[in-house]
Amino acid sequence: MASGKGGVGRTSLSFNLGVALSLFGEEVVILDMDLVMANMDVITGLLNPEVTLHDVLVREKSIEDCVYEVNQGIRVVPTGMHFETLKNINTSYISWNKIIEEISDYGNIFLMDLPAGIDSNILGALPEDSEIILVTTSTMTSVADALKLRILLKELNLDVLGFVLNMWYDDKFLLSPKEIEALLELPMISAIPYDREMDRALALGRSVVETNTSSPTSNAIMQLSADLLGKQYQPVEPDKSSILKRIKKFVGMLPE
Q1: C-alpha–C-alpha distance, residues 187 and 59, integer Å
Q2: Domain spanning 10-250: CATH superfamily
Q3: Sequence-ordered alpha helix ranges (H) in the chain
Q4: CA-CA 20 to 30 A from 31: which of 52, 112, 123, 154?
Q5: pLDDT tens digits, one per residue of 60-91
Q6: Domain boundaries, given as residue ranges, for the chain
């Protein structure tokens, strides 16, 4: 997952997509490749992990030491916030191929959360069989930065499947999906609607696809996962009977 601009929800989407893929029976490993402003550890509840990717890249630890299983049924390789070790890391010499090979026994899908912006050292070192999904919102600045990244990815001969329009809501002052497709010259894979349920789930250190299975965002992410896997998905409808019971209880029509 890549984005030209920060703040488009790439990391939270990567986490939720990883959980959604695992719900289809896949063994998923999420690699946080943002070496400077990592957030995957915070989102997944891995606060202050003992060993991070920084420790591996300065050759102090083995990659197996920083593969953590979180309670959503996925594994995470966090980066952490070790700025002291960051000074000793040269991104030009990172072999993501080697890292993925060394943790190949932990999963069959490796979901890479790339840093925002353009880092040719990291992008140029990605495995040749990487499939990249751009994440953007519908604002002009977000799409403009996504276009810059799209141009670089094309020059690096990296395969871009398309883009996900994240935190989408209909507004005449925002770019439409068709306009974004024309600008990026890429198909839209999915539109994930803006939903406060995502914020609530992240505050709990959980995924929205588990905390609220019937929310629009949850259904959209599960559908995205199904599409990527070539599987079928039946959207989960809200339990209206449960909602009616809560309303009746609130107004005193049902006993406590």
Answers
A1: 40
A2: P-loop containing nucleotide triphosphate hydrolases (3.40.50.300)
A3: 10-23, 40-43, 53-57, 83-86, 96-102, 120-124, 140-155, 177-184, 196-203, 208-211, 216-229, 240-250
A4: 154
A5: 788 899 999 987 789 999 987 665 655 666 55
A6: 10-250
